[in-house]
Amino acid sequence: MKYKAIVCDLDGTLLNEEHKFSEETKETIKEVKKTGRKIFIATGRHHLDALKLKEQLGLDSYLISSNGARIHDENNIEVYEKNIDKEVVDFILSVKCKEGIERHVYTDTKWYVERDKEEYLSFHQESKFFHEVKEFSKIENEKFIKIFFVSKNIDELLKLEEYFIKVIGSKVSITLSGPECLEIMAKDVTKGEAIKNIMQKLNISLENTMAFGDGLNDYEMLKEVGKGLLMGNCATRLRDKLPNNEIIGKNIENGVANYLKKLFL
Q1: Which of 157, 186, 215 is the last residue of a domain?
Q2: How many of the other CB atoms lie within 10 Å of CB of 99?
Q3: What CATH code is carried by the domain that includes residue 182?
Q4: What is the structure's pLDDT at 103?
Q5: Same-domain status, 179 and 205
Q6: What is the C-alpha to C-alpha distance for residues 112 and 108, in angstroms, rounded to an integer?
Q7: Which of 61, 158, 219, 235 sits at 20 to 30 Å (Cα–Cα) from 10?
Q8: Structural domain of residue 157, as residue ranges?
Q9: Catalytic residue ranges
Q10: Per-residue pLDDT at 121
């Protein structure tokens, strides 16, 4: 049994276009788990959000959330946290964004937005982890896990990415979880670092670990593991950064489930 651990991203990977698990995916995960392999979720979502999805799959494993800023063990006890420094938070939130760029904040128990939007609700119907409208300057005595920017204006989002890399790139981790979502976490926070942390605890080598992902926030973990698999719908920039990695089916085609069935079942 070469591959003892399987790590899966959620959106664009395990979840379909409706941000739900297909019945085929749920059944396949259940059957692969019976073979004795450990299956983990590694996501950019908040841990309270991801926990509900983990429960739907019947997993009893570690959970990586907010791109590695939080790790919870099998019993949902937090075993690792890393937050953005307050002075860096203040700077990020002081930057004026172009119209059409929406700002979001994750704290330990909240997802804050500046204005209400219907699509935020539909995106999280499965987990029921919903946003709260709040003036960011009034967030007090809370840990900032992640700040992210969402926009359909890709060019402006890329300009913002370039600006933050230039000005605070040495103090934070910056990534695009999708073409319309720019995310900022504390320095050295990545899914790759989180996976190394967990596998060391479980005495599983990275060589015996495989991972599935579709976004640039999956880059480090796909690079670190023994077998990093790209979804057929993955970001072009991710494909360019990992030109030798195998590409499988798309998330809307149950790509992960089909691959796991062929390999393990």
Answers
A1: 186
A2: 7
A3: 3.30.1240.10
A4: 97
A5: no
A6: 11
A7: 158
A8: 86-186
A9: 9
A10: 74
